[in-house]
Design brief:
mainly alpha, globular
């Protein structure tokens, strides 16, 4: 629950500074005041999201030690390096965000813009370092494990594990896409109310431009991630695709209800040879099924398969909306005046975060029953303490409270009159 809440602000911490820096760069290049106002509005929103993300991130740091003491005792020396680097990136982001927020008319325009670029780069660096730690949990390397202890630790090799090379770009792109689509949805909503607004038109065009560049790259990244999972975590890939039986020419199953007892999937749309082609670019390739693993090493197939379908489905809808808007631009030249297209953008606004959350479920639940894949089971790492319902309830109330504050403050920003 904590990760599900925090990941929203972590993603916005990657995407919003990027949009903010691009808007100021556009202002410096064109001297169009609408981009300056846009940058200032987005900067205030970024500050709000940064503050709440810092609180939820602090909660997570406590929870790592309190809820997973055996994991931290064993793996702390390995993942300590990326978390320490993430701390440096976080403080760098905080310092230069302060310069950006309070440096208007106090530093030169170029220095001010550079501070915004550093904020964006630091936000991305934070994501990179944290994801390398998660990637290590999926594909652990850089150590020897004997007698229940880690020895001969190489933190650099651990960070540069095989999974990090596909998880990092996938996560960074997901953050940028989720943020840009949400921003596009918000400004499309206001453009429906104020069709002549140059402010919302500029904001929507910029957000769609970032989404249009990022989303096709994400499909390429997703394809690479799926093929890497087939090699590095075949049980996860089999659960993602509800693939129970090892076979050549494996079909791709979309939707359906996986049944672990009968090892079948009812009601799925089946594309012959589709999974083999996606995994190996060969329609007759052999794909490992869950039947090659003991039952006590299966993840929850329904949760993983449905989450994967939700992630891919959400991304596909966003791509279709972007393609439609692009086609309108080629055909009519002014797609942002099409009210049906604007409504579609509003409806698609939250889909980036739907895909982000469901993708995170695929990553985490798909690794089960391992907290460190093939090395340490989750049940071996979790705290033995009872009564966790009490801190769970307290943290849940905190998240609801923070969520209400964020909605209230952002709503005030959205509803302020603009130039």
């Amino acid at each position: 629950m904590s990760l599900g809440f925090h990941i929203i602000f972590a993603a916005m911490g990657v995407g919003m500074p990027l949009l903010m820096a691009i808007a100021e760069g556009m202002y410096l290049r064109t001297k169009n005041p609408v981009y300056l106002e846009l940058c200032q509005r987005w900067a205030k929103g970024t500050a709000i999201l940064f503050a709440v993300g810092a609180v939820s991130g602090t909660v997570l740091s406590f929870e790592l030690g309190l809820l997973w003491p055996k994991f931290m005792a064993s793996a702390g020396a390995i993942i300590g390096m990326p978390f320490s680097l993430e701390g440096f990136a976080f403080f760098t982001e905080a310092i230069f965000l302060g310069v950006f927020l309070y440096g208007w008319n106090r530093v030169s325009p170029l220095a001010h813009w550079i501070s915004g670029v550093i904020v964006a780069a630091s936000g991305m660096a934070s994501a990179v370092f944290v994801v390398t730690a998660n990637a290590w949990m999926n594909v652990p390397t850089g150590f020897k494990f004997a007698g229940g202890a880690f020895t001969d630790i190489d933190p650099t090799a651990a960070m540069l594990n095989d999974a990090s090379f596909h998880e990092v770009p996938h996560m960074v792109l997901a953050a940028v896409i989720a943020t840009s689509f949400m921003v596009a949805g918000v400004h499309a909503f206001f453009l429906l109310r104020e069709p002549g607004s140059t402010f919302h038109r500029a904001a929507l065009g910029l957000a769609l431009g970032i989404a249009g560049l990022s989303l096709p790259l994400q499909f390429i990244s997703g394809d690479a991630s799926a093929r890497a999972a087939a090699k590095l975590q075949p049980a996860k890939l089999a659960a993602m695709e509800a693939h129970f039986h090892t076979e050549t020419g494996a079909p791709l199953l979309i939707g359906g209800i996986p049944d672990e007892q009968t090892m079948t999937t009812r009601g799925a749309v089946s594309i012959p040879d589709g999974l083999s082609f996606l995994v190996a670019h060969d329609t007759k390739a052999k794909v490992t099924g869950l039947d090659q693993f003991p039952r006590n090493q299966w993840p929850n197939v329904r949760v993983v398969h449905w989450s994967f379908d939700i992630m891919v489905g959400s991304a596909s809808v966003m791509l279709a909306v972007l393609a439609w808007v692009g086609a309108l631009r080629l055909k009519q030249g002014r797609p942002l005046e099409n009210r049906l297209a604007l409504r579609a953008l509003v409806a698609a606004g939250p889909l980036g975060f739907v895909a982000l959350e469901s993708g995170w479920v695929v990553t985490e639940v798909g690794r089960q029953p391992w907290i460190i894949y093939g090395v340490m089971r989750t049940e071996e790492a979790v705290t033995p303490m009872h009564g966790l319902i009490i801190p769970f309830t307290m943290f849940s109330i905190l998240y609801v409270f923070l969520g209400i504050i964020v909605v209230f403050l952002l709503r005030q920003q959205f509803l302020k009159p603009h130039a």
